[in-house]
Amino acid sequence: MKLQMKVIFAILTGILFVVSGCTNKSEDTKKTNLKNQAETKAKYEIVEAKSFKVKNIRGIGYPGNDNALYVAANDGIKMYKDGKWYKTTTNQHDYIGFQAVQSGFLSSGHPQKGTGLTDPLGLVQSVDKGETLQKLAFYGKVNFHFTAASFSGEGLYVISEQPNDALSLGVNYSTDGGGTWKKSAFKDFNADSLGMIAVHPKNGAIMAMSTRSGIYYSTDNGNTMKLITDPFMVTALTFTGDSILYSSVENDQIVLKTLNPASGEQTNITFPFLDYDNPITYLAINPKNDKQIAFTTYKNDLFESIDGGTNWNNLMKDGKKEMK
Fold this sequence. Notes:
Blueprint: H1 2-13, H2 27-30, H3 34-39, E1 46-48, E2 52-53, E3 57-61, E4 69-73, E5 76-81, E6 84-88, E7 94-101, E8 104-110, E9 123-126, E10 134-137, E11 147-149, E12 156-160, E13 170-174, E14 182-183, E15 197-199, E16 207-211, E17 214-218, E18 226-227, E19 233-240, E20 243-250, E21 253-259, E22 266-268, E23 280-286, E24 289-297, E25 302-305, E26 313-316, E27 320-321
Antiparallel strand pairs: 1-6, 2-27, 3-4, 4-5, 5-6, 7-8, 8-9, 9-10, 11-12, 12-13, 13-14, 15-16, 16-17, 17-18, 19-20, 20-21, 21-22, 23-24, 24-25, 25-26
Protein backbone atom coordinates (compact mmCIF):
# COMPACT_ATOMS: atom_id res chain seq x y z
CA MET A 1 0.00 0.00 0.00
CA LYS A 2 2.80 2.43 0.81
CA LEU A 3 4.43 1.72 -2.54
CA GLN A 4 1.08 2.35 -4.23
CA MET A 5 0.76 5.71 -2.50
CA LYS A 6 4.26 6.69 -3.63
CA VAL A 7 3.22 6.01 -7.21
CA ILE A 8 0.05 8.06 -6.74
CA PHE A 9 2.03 10.92 -5.20
CA ALA A 10 4.42 10.94 -8.14
CA ILE A 11 1.43 11.35 -10.42
CA LEU A 12 -0.11 14.05 -8.25
CA THR A 13 2.92 16.22 -7.65
CA GLY A 14 5.32 15.26 -10.41
CA ILE A 15 8.87 14.48 -9.38
CA LEU A 16 10.67 17.06 -11.46
CA PHE A 17 11.86 14.86 -14.29
CA VAL A 18 8.89 12.47 -14.41
CA VAL A 19 5.70 14.11 -15.64
CA SER A 20 2.97 11.97 -17.16
CA GLY A 21 0.39 12.64 -19.80
CA CYS A 22 1.15 16.03 -21.39
CA THR A 23 4.04 16.71 -23.72
CA ASN A 24 4.58 19.36 -26.34
CA LYS A 25 2.91 18.67 -29.65
CA SER A 26 4.84 17.38 -32.64
CA GLU A 27 6.01 19.38 -35.66
CA ASP A 28 2.67 18.56 -37.33
CA THR A 29 1.04 21.18 -35.09
CA LYS A 30 3.29 23.88 -36.49
CA LYS A 31 2.19 22.97 -40.01
CA THR A 32 -1.51 23.28 -39.26
CA ASN A 33 -3.30 25.79 -41.46
CA LEU A 34 -4.41 28.46 -38.99
CA LYS A 35 -6.64 30.08 -41.61
CA ASN A 36 -8.66 26.89 -41.90
CA GLN A 37 -8.71 26.61 -38.12
CA ALA A 38 -10.10 30.13 -37.78
CA GLU A 39 -12.94 29.26 -40.13
CA THR A 40 -14.11 26.55 -37.72
CA LYS A 41 -14.38 28.87 -34.72
CA ALA A 42 -17.69 28.69 -32.88
CA LYS A 43 -19.30 31.54 -30.99
CA TYR A 44 -18.10 31.66 -27.39
CA GLU A 45 -20.91 31.19 -24.90
CA ILE A 46 -21.30 29.82 -21.38
CA VAL A 47 -24.18 27.36 -21.45
CA GLU A 48 -25.76 24.99 -18.96
CA ALA A 49 -24.22 21.51 -19.00
CA LYS A 50 -26.84 18.84 -18.45
CA SER A 51 -24.23 16.08 -18.38
CA PHE A 52 -20.53 15.61 -19.01
CA LYS A 53 -17.60 13.29 -18.29
CA VAL A 54 -14.27 14.80 -17.29
CA LYS A 55 -11.24 12.66 -18.11
CA ASN A 56 -8.60 14.72 -16.30
CA ILE A 57 -9.06 17.47 -13.70
CA ARG A 58 -6.20 19.97 -13.95
CA GLY A 59 -7.13 22.32 -11.11
CA ILE A 60 -9.99 24.07 -9.30
CA GLY A 61 -10.62 27.54 -7.92
CA TYR A 62 -12.89 30.50 -7.32
CA PRO A 63 -11.95 33.38 -9.66
CA GLY A 64 -12.53 36.86 -8.28
CA ASN A 65 -14.45 37.99 -11.39
CA ASP A 66 -17.16 35.32 -11.06
CA ASN A 67 -19.32 33.66 -8.41
CA ALA A 68 -18.70 30.10 -9.54
CA LEU A 69 -16.43 27.18 -8.76
CA TYR A 70 -14.22 26.56 -11.79
CA VAL A 71 -12.95 23.09 -12.67
CA ALA A 72 -10.16 23.10 -15.26
CA ALA A 73 -10.12 19.96 -17.38
CA ASN A 74 -8.49 18.58 -20.49
CA ASP A 75 -11.53 19.80 -22.48
CA GLY A 76 -12.02 23.27 -21.06
CA ILE A 77 -13.53 24.93 -18.00
CA LYS A 78 -16.58 23.58 -16.19
CA MET A 79 -18.35 26.02 -13.85
CA TYR A 80 -20.63 25.23 -10.90
CA LYS A 81 -22.93 28.00 -9.73
CA ASP A 82 -26.26 28.16 -7.86
CA GLY A 83 -26.76 24.39 -8.09
CA LYS A 84 -26.12 24.15 -11.85
CA TRP A 85 -23.19 23.16 -14.04
CA TYR A 86 -22.05 25.24 -17.02
CA LYS A 87 -19.53 24.77 -19.82
CA THR A 88 -18.18 26.84 -22.70
CA THR A 89 -19.15 26.29 -26.32
CA THR A 90 -15.58 26.84 -27.56
CA ASN A 91 -12.10 27.59 -26.16
CA GLN A 92 -12.17 24.13 -24.63
CA HIS A 93 -8.44 24.15 -24.08
CA ASP A 94 -6.46 21.54 -22.19
CA TYR A 95 -5.82 23.79 -19.21
CA ILE A 96 -2.80 22.68 -17.16
CA GLY A 97 -1.46 24.38 -14.03
CA PHE A 98 -4.75 26.25 -13.55
CA GLN A 99 -4.82 29.02 -10.90
CA ALA A 100 -7.80 31.21 -9.95
CA VAL A 101 -6.87 34.85 -9.23
CA GLN A 102 -8.69 38.10 -8.48
CA SER A 103 -8.89 39.16 -12.12
CA GLY A 104 -9.84 35.73 -13.50
CA PHE A 105 -7.48 32.80 -13.92
CA LEU A 106 -3.98 31.84 -15.05
CA SER A 107 -3.01 28.65 -16.79
CA SER A 108 -0.69 26.80 -19.10
CA GLY A 109 -1.56 23.90 -21.37
CA HIS A 110 -2.53 23.14 -24.94
CA PRO A 111 -5.14 24.99 -27.07
CA GLN A 112 -8.28 23.42 -28.50
CA LYS A 113 -7.87 22.59 -32.17
CA GLY A 114 -9.51 25.16 -34.41
CA THR A 115 -8.93 28.18 -32.19
CA GLY A 116 -5.82 29.40 -34.01
CA LEU A 117 -3.75 29.55 -30.83
CA THR A 118 -0.14 28.35 -30.75
CA ASP A 119 0.75 25.19 -28.86
CA PRO A 120 1.92 25.19 -26.10
CA LEU A 121 0.20 28.13 -24.42
CA GLY A 122 3.08 29.07 -22.13
CA LEU A 123 1.64 31.12 -19.29
CA VAL A 124 -1.65 32.85 -20.14
CA GLN A 125 -4.36 34.78 -18.31
CA SER A 126 -8.09 35.26 -18.85
CA VAL A 127 -10.07 38.13 -17.35
CA ASP A 128 -13.34 37.39 -19.20
CA LYS A 129 -14.24 33.88 -18.00
CA GLY A 130 -12.23 32.11 -20.65
CA GLU A 131 -13.46 33.95 -23.74
CA THR A 132 -9.98 35.30 -24.52
CA LEU A 133 -6.47 34.57 -23.31
CA GLN A 134 -3.74 37.13 -22.70
CA LYS A 135 -0.14 36.06 -23.21
CA LEU A 136 1.99 36.55 -20.08
CA ALA A 137 5.15 34.59 -20.87
CA PHE A 138 6.64 31.76 -22.95
CA TYR A 139 3.72 31.61 -25.43
CA GLY A 140 4.35 28.85 -27.95
CA LYS A 141 7.52 27.76 -26.12
CA VAL A 142 6.86 26.02 -22.81
CA ASN A 143 4.10 24.02 -21.14
CA PHE A 144 4.08 24.23 -17.34
CA HIS A 145 2.52 21.38 -15.40
CA PHE A 146 2.92 23.28 -12.14
CA THR A 147 2.16 26.98 -11.77
CA ALA A 148 1.05 29.06 -8.79
CA ALA A 149 0.02 32.64 -8.12
CA SER A 150 -1.19 34.89 -5.36
CA PHE A 151 -4.92 35.63 -5.59
CA SER A 152 -3.95 39.31 -5.80
CA GLY A 153 -1.96 38.48 -8.93
CA GLU A 154 1.33 39.46 -7.31
CA GLY A 155 3.87 36.69 -7.28
CA LEU A 156 3.91 34.03 -10.02
CA TYR A 157 5.68 30.69 -9.70
CA VAL A 158 6.44 27.92 -12.20
CA ILE A 159 8.38 24.68 -12.04
CA SER A 160 10.68 24.57 -15.04
CA GLU A 161 11.33 21.02 -16.18
CA GLN A 162 13.78 22.11 -18.88
CA PRO A 163 16.01 25.16 -18.44
CA ASN A 164 16.05 27.89 -21.08
CA ASP A 165 17.39 31.44 -21.48
CA ALA A 166 14.82 32.85 -19.03
CA LEU A 167 14.27 29.97 -16.60
CA SER A 168 16.50 27.81 -14.46
CA LEU A 169 15.72 24.18 -13.72
CA GLY A 170 13.34 23.96 -10.76
CA VAL A 171 11.18 26.64 -9.16
CA ASN A 172 11.24 30.13 -10.68
CA TYR A 173 9.26 33.22 -9.65
CA SER A 174 8.24 36.54 -11.17
CA THR A 175 7.22 39.73 -9.34
CA ASP A 176 6.33 41.69 -12.47
CA GLY A 177 3.55 39.63 -14.06
CA GLY A 178 5.84 37.27 -15.96
CA GLY A 179 8.15 39.87 -17.47
CA THR A 180 11.29 38.66 -15.69
CA TRP A 181 12.07 35.55 -13.68
CA LYS A 182 14.41 34.52 -10.87
CA LYS A 183 15.28 31.09 -9.53
CA SER A 184 14.14 30.24 -6.01
CA ALA A 185 17.25 29.18 -4.09
CA PHE A 186 15.35 26.66 -1.90
CA LYS A 187 17.89 26.89 0.92
CA ASP A 188 17.24 24.28 3.67
CA PHE A 189 14.90 22.31 1.40
CA ASN A 190 15.62 18.64 2.06
CA ALA A 191 12.72 16.82 0.39
CA ASP A 192 13.37 14.35 -2.43
CA SER A 193 10.64 15.75 -4.66
CA LEU A 194 9.06 19.00 -5.82
CA GLY A 195 5.29 19.19 -5.36
CA MET A 196 2.33 21.51 -5.55
CA ILE A 197 2.91 25.20 -4.78
CA ALA A 198 0.45 27.46 -2.94
CA VAL A 199 0.87 31.24 -2.63
CA HIS A 200 -0.47 33.59 0.04
CA PRO A 201 -3.56 35.38 -1.34
CA LYS A 202 -2.20 38.88 -0.69
CA ASN A 203 1.57 38.53 -0.29
CA GLY A 204 3.20 36.90 -3.30
CA ALA A 205 6.51 36.41 -1.46
CA ILE A 206 4.91 33.89 0.90
CA MET A 207 4.60 30.41 -0.56
CA ALA A 208 4.38 26.78 0.52
CA MET A 209 5.09 23.48 -1.20
CA SER A 210 3.71 19.99 -0.60
CA THR A 211 6.19 17.12 -0.61
CA ARG A 212 6.38 13.46 0.34
CA SER A 213 7.94 14.56 3.63
CA GLY A 214 5.64 17.41 4.62
CA ILE A 215 5.04 21.11 3.86
CA TYR A 216 7.90 23.49 3.26
CA TYR A 217 7.15 27.18 3.87
CA SER A 218 8.87 30.36 2.71
CA THR A 219 8.42 34.11 3.24
CA ASP A 220 10.99 35.15 0.61
CA ASN A 221 9.82 33.65 -2.70
CA GLY A 222 11.22 30.22 -1.91
CA ASN A 223 14.79 31.35 -1.40
CA THR A 224 14.79 29.94 2.14
CA MET A 225 12.49 27.08 3.08
CA LYS A 226 11.32 25.68 6.41
CA LEU A 227 9.62 22.36 7.14
CA ILE A 228 6.49 23.23 9.15
CA THR A 229 4.71 19.85 9.48
CA ASP A 230 5.53 16.35 10.58
CA PRO A 231 7.13 14.28 7.80
CA PHE A 232 3.91 12.90 6.34
CA MET A 233 3.03 12.79 2.64
CA VAL A 234 1.11 15.96 1.68
CA THR A 235 -0.91 15.67 -1.53
CA ALA A 236 -2.64 19.08 -1.79
CA LEU A 237 -2.60 22.51 -0.18
CA THR A 238 -3.93 26.05 -0.50
CA PHE A 239 -3.85 29.21 1.57
CA THR A 240 -6.80 30.47 3.58
CA GLY A 241 -5.75 33.90 4.75
CA ASP A 242 -2.47 33.49 6.64
CA SER A 243 -3.14 29.79 7.32
CA ILE A 244 -2.77 26.76 5.07
CA LEU A 245 -5.46 24.19 4.30
CA TYR A 246 -3.83 20.89 3.37
CA SER A 247 -4.46 17.18 2.95
CA SER A 248 -1.97 14.53 3.96
CA VAL A 249 -1.74 10.77 4.36
CA GLU A 250 -0.97 9.98 8.00
CA ASN A 251 -0.80 6.45 9.37
CA ASP A 252 -2.64 5.13 6.30
CA GLN A 253 -5.44 7.68 6.75
CA ILE A 254 -6.32 10.65 4.53
CA VAL A 255 -6.71 13.78 6.64
CA LEU A 256 -7.70 17.40 6.02
CA LYS A 257 -6.31 20.13 8.28
CA THR A 258 -5.61 23.82 8.63
CA LEU A 259 -2.23 25.00 9.87
CA ASN A 260 -1.12 28.43 11.06
CA PRO A 261 2.60 28.63 10.13
CA ALA A 262 3.27 31.35 12.71
CA SER A 263 1.77 29.61 15.75
CA GLY A 264 1.90 25.99 14.62
CA GLU A 265 -1.78 25.57 15.57
CA GLN A 266 -3.58 22.85 13.60
CA THR A 267 -7.29 22.11 13.25
CA ASN A 268 -8.85 18.97 11.76
CA ILE A 269 -11.56 19.47 9.13
CA THR A 270 -14.32 16.89 8.82
CA PHE A 271 -14.87 15.62 5.27
CA PRO A 272 -16.46 12.61 3.52
CA PHE A 273 -14.68 9.27 3.84
CA LEU A 274 -12.17 8.55 1.08
CA ASP A 275 -10.54 5.23 0.28
CA TYR A 276 -6.81 5.05 0.88
CA ASP A 277 -6.13 4.89 -2.87
CA ASN A 278 -8.27 7.99 -3.61
CA PRO A 279 -6.37 10.88 -1.96
CA ILE A 280 -7.17 14.57 -2.33
CA THR A 281 -5.49 16.12 -5.37
CA TYR A 282 -6.63 19.78 -5.42
CA LEU A 283 -7.98 22.12 -2.75
CA ALA A 284 -9.63 25.51 -3.15
CA ILE A 285 -11.12 28.11 -0.83
CA ASN A 286 -13.13 31.08 -2.04
CA PRO A 287 -11.15 34.17 -0.93
CA LYS A 288 -14.41 36.13 -0.88
CA ASN A 289 -16.07 33.54 1.40
CA ASP A 290 -13.76 31.29 3.41
CA LYS A 291 -16.68 28.99 4.32
CA GLN A 292 -16.78 27.83 0.68
CA ILE A 293 -14.30 24.97 0.24
CA ALA A 294 -13.83 22.45 -2.54
CA PHE A 295 -11.57 19.49 -3.21
CA THR A 296 -11.01 16.87 -5.90
CA THR A 297 -9.63 13.37 -5.60
CA TYR A 298 -7.35 11.07 -7.54
CA LYS A 299 -10.40 9.31 -9.01
CA ASN A 300 -11.95 12.61 -10.18
CA ASP A 301 -14.51 13.04 -7.43
CA LEU A 302 -15.42 16.63 -6.51
CA PHE A 303 -16.84 17.80 -3.19
CA GLU A 304 -17.86 21.27 -2.04
CA SER A 305 -18.86 22.72 1.33
CA ILE A 306 -20.47 26.11 1.82
CA ASP A 307 -20.38 26.02 5.63
CA GLY A 308 -16.70 25.55 6.34
CA GLY A 309 -16.71 21.76 6.18
CA THR A 310 -19.73 20.88 8.31
CA ASN A 311 -21.66 19.58 5.30
CA TRP A 312 -20.40 18.49 1.89
CA ASN A 313 -22.04 18.07 -1.52
CA ASN A 314 -20.70 15.50 -3.98
CA LEU A 315 -20.73 17.49 -7.24
CA MET A 316 -18.87 14.99 -9.41
CA LYS A 317 -18.30 11.25 -9.18
CA ASP A 318 -15.54 9.61 -11.24
CA GLY A 319 -15.42 12.81 -13.28
CA LYS A 320 -19.05 12.50 -14.24
CA LYS A 321 -22.01 14.82 -13.88
CA GLU A 322 -25.21 12.88 -14.41
CA MET A 323 -28.30 14.13 -16.21
CA LYS A 324 -31.01 15.06 -13.69
